[in-house]
Amino acid sequence: MPRPIFPFLVLTSSLLSGWAAAQSATNIQLILDASGSMSGKLPDGQTRIASAQSTLTQFLSGLNADSGLNVGMRIYGAGLKAGQQCEDSVLVTPMKGFDKTALQAQVNAAKPKGATPIVYSLMQAAADFPKDNSQKVIVLVTDGEESCGGKLNDAVALFKKLGIDVDVRIIGIDLNEKARKSFECVGTFENARSGRELGEALNRATASAQTGKYAVSGPKTAGAGSNIAIKWTGPNNEGDYVTIVPKGAPIGQYKDYFYTKNGNPGSLTVPLVAGEYELRYSSEKA
């Protein structure tokens, strides 16, 4: 069985549709942590901010753009907003089109300085998105947990109150166990310990937004041990497969799977242990 290099990851509750082709636009907001702790070093010797800047710059260079893609950026902790550190969160590039050069310039200009107002930033982000049925994605890159007393559940509640259906992806940079656990209640979380892992996580977080190249869909819930039909969108390269794994499983882990060459839709058997699971499209040649 080949080790997957580019798994497509989707989940909000149990099993769900990964990409809605009927949505005419996709709005992605990248939220970058520029708090003081980002000056610390990763196990590979690179500072957290340098790793994030390099990886985000490369990621933006490779992001597939089309007329319906809008990418914006919010930065917190960089001292860009006068006043209280816990309100230092600024939308530096709005979600209007995809200005790659402007986004990369903002990324590389960020200087780690202040606090980590994650909840405040997420609640501000709620006002950044258009009030329509477009696909909405937040990708938060951070090296720490909330430091301003905010409650992540409050941010989630605000999105629900406003009727905003947003896919929140949290990418931690070498987080400790306490910080990792703090994100269990919101979105999908991954922890990266190097620039390479950060890049892979960014690709997974935005895969469904990249012109629908990779997508999987299945029922939102299913009985333990039952067989479910899974539709997929992808290049169908030799060795490509779709699998079902526990939420947050490491790259390379798989349970039941089917090769895409065997047809669309394919069939998977739901694990016997109750819980939350993810569908992943994996390709060696992505």
Q: Could you explain the architecture of this structure?
A:
- The relative contact order is 0.20.
- This protein folds into two domains: 22-209, von Willebrand factor, type A domain (Rossmann fold); 215-282.
- Helix content is 22%, strand content 26%.
- It has helices at 48-62, 100-109, 118-128, 152-161, 177-182, 195-206, and strands at 8-10, 26-33, 69-76, 89-93, 135-142, 167-173, 188-192, 215-217, 227-233, 241-246, 257-259, 266-269, 277-282.
- The protein is of the alpha/beta class and 286 residues long.
- Helix 1 (48-62) runs antiparallel to helix 2, helix 1 crosses helix 6 (195-206) and helix 3 runs parallel beside helix 4 (152-161).
- The strands form three sheets. It has a six-stranded mixed β-sheet with strand order 4-3-2-5-6-7, sandwiched between helices.
Helical proportion, percent range: 10-25%
The CATH architecture of the largest domain comes to 3-Layer(aba) Sandwich
CATH class categorisation of the largest domain:
Alpha Beta
Main beta-sheet annotation: 6 strands, mixed
Compute the number of structural domains: 2
**What is the N-to-C order of secondary-structure elements (H for helix, E for strand)?**
EEHEEHHEHEHEHEEEEEE
Q: What share of the residues does DSSP label as strand, in percent? A: 25-35%
Question: Which fold name is given in CATH as the topology of the largest domain?
Answer: Rossmann fold
| DSSP strand tally | 13
Organism: Deinococcus detaillensis
Keywords: Signal
InterPro entries: VWF_A (IPR002035), vWFA_dom_sf (IPR036465)
Protein name: VWA domain-containing protein
